[in-house]
Design goal:
Bound molecules: zinc ion
Distance between the termini: 29 Å
Largest sheet: 3 strands, mixed
Structural class: mainly alpha
Order of helices and strands: HEHHHHHHHEEEHHEHHHHHHHH
Strand content: 5-15%
Length: 416
């Protein structure tokens, strides 16, 4: 490395370290903010002792942004990773500044908030878009009463019995892990524990602990249907969050010594890539519908004691339901913008996202707490899919290699 390159590396490492300290400082004001941290433990105790005010964090964030702009650029070396690293720090610091303003009371509109925090704006869909999908569902689930009520009755036979949930989930994890390991070099001692929890606003959560270890929590407040086994195993585990975090730790924190990746601020552009890759991971693990259906029918349905002859019928309905996921963004946008109240949001989700009242209430709870974060799931998935498909077409091996590269790099939404 030339001396100019060394100076640039030194400059940006100092910025990266200060950024990590500011994220920890903001975590003192916002318990949801620091999703993972496995850097030096004394950094965290220092933030706890210091308890920096929001004003001080805001001022230092602005200062850091200016310092980064003046830091010598090492990207001239031609290493794309260095260019991405710089952009990553810019976006993450700017999102940090936005989160500080929000905690100080600034009210952002939904799209402004998602642009500031996640570097992306979700498309808006009119009610008629959802009406077309709903009409197709109406035809598949005939009968009297509201659609959500009929849907709940119709899908009852596909609930995984509580006493079989862990066995079914572990089978899905094993398959997703084997499929991932065949294509991606996982750190040799990576692992996670699974816990079943209640009274949470989310369905599942990956808590990354560092040292290639995660704790995955599955929320059992509501019945868990058979499609969720692979969805959760791929999203939280392989090749989703657990793999993403492990590869960032291996490639960026350990091999390159980049401290900014030992911390993950939840309300930041990194979340769009995290949720987008976790959701799209299902399709990477099971590149064709036929592969997934074979596994479901041969392994998961029997393990759950569910009639496998209805698997195709069940998944045809799930494909339509998935298209309704953008309805959650619409409800969240209206709720955050103050156009509807919570009661109207629950009703709207019952109608347009075909949720029963309990599920709709859980979803509104999630929106109240995480706001525009909802776009990271559906828009994130669509952005990641477009990015990967542009590079690999439909070749499954190429798809895995591009996906693995994305999981090991500091690429953010505007680079997708
Ligand atoms: Zn997730």
């Amino acid at each position: 490395m030339s001396s100019g390159g060394a100076r640039a590396a030194e400059g940006i490492n100092a910025v990266a370290e200060r950024y990590a300290h500011l994220v920890l400082a903001l975590g003192q004001h916002d318990p949801d903010y620091v999703d993972a941290f496995y850097g030096p433990a004394e950094w965290k105790t220092h933030a706890e002792k210091e308890k920096k005010s929001l004003d001080a964090i805001g001022a230092e964030t602005a200062e850091l942004f200016a310092i980064l702009a003046k830091t010598p650029d090492a990207a001239a070396s031609g290493d794309e990773m260095l260019k991405l690293r710089r952009e990553y720090l810019q976006k993450q610091i700017s999102a940090l500044a936005a989160r500080v303003r929000m905690l100080k009371g600034e009210k952002l509109r939904f799209d402004d908030e998602s642009r500031a925090l996640y570097d992306a704006v979700a498309p808006t869909y009119s009610d008629s878009h959802f009406d077309e999908i709903l009409a197709q569902l109406e035809a598949k689930i005939p009968g009297k009463g509201p659609l959500w009520e009929r849907y709940e009755k119709w899908r009852k036979p596909f609930v995984i019995p509580k006493e079989k949930l862990d066995a079914v989930f572990q089978l899905a994890v094993k398959e997703c892990r084997a499929r991932t390991q065949a294509h991606v070099a996982l750190p040799p001692n990576e692992s996670f524990n699974v816990e079943y929890v209640t009274n949470k606003p989310w369905g599942g959560y990956n808590w990354y602990k560092g040292n290639f270890h995660s704790v995955i929590q599955v929320n059992t407040d509501l019945p868990i249907y058979i499609d969720r086994a692979v969805d959760l195993a791929a999203h939280e585990g392989y090749p989703g969050h657990h793999v993403y975090n492990s590869l960032l730790e291996k490639n960026l924190v350990r091999d390159r010594g980049w401290p900014e990746f030992s911390i993950y601020p939840l309300f930041s552009p990194q979340s769009l890539v995290a949720e987008g890759t976790a959701n799209f991971g299902r399709e990477v693990a099971f590149p064709t519908k036929a592969e997934r259906m074979n596994f479901e029918k041969e392994v998961l349905f029997p393990a759950a004691g569910i009639d496998g002859s209805r698997a195709d019928e069940y998944y045809a309905v799930q494909d339509l339901m998935k298209q309704l996921n953008y309805a959650v963004n619409e409800v969240a946008r209206r709720l955050v913008n103050g156009e509807i109240d919570e009661k109207a949001a629950v009703q709207w989700l019952q109608k347009c996202a075909v949720m029963d009242p309990k599920r709709a209430q859980q979803s509104v709870k999630f929106i109240k707490r995480y706001r525009s974060y909802v776009i990271n799931y559906n828009l994130g998935e669509d952005m990641v899919r477009r990015y990967i498909e542009k590079r690999s077409g439909t070749d499954p091996d190429k798809r895995w290699s591009e996906f693995g590269k994305l999981l090991s790099s500091p690429r953010l939404p505007s680079d997708l």
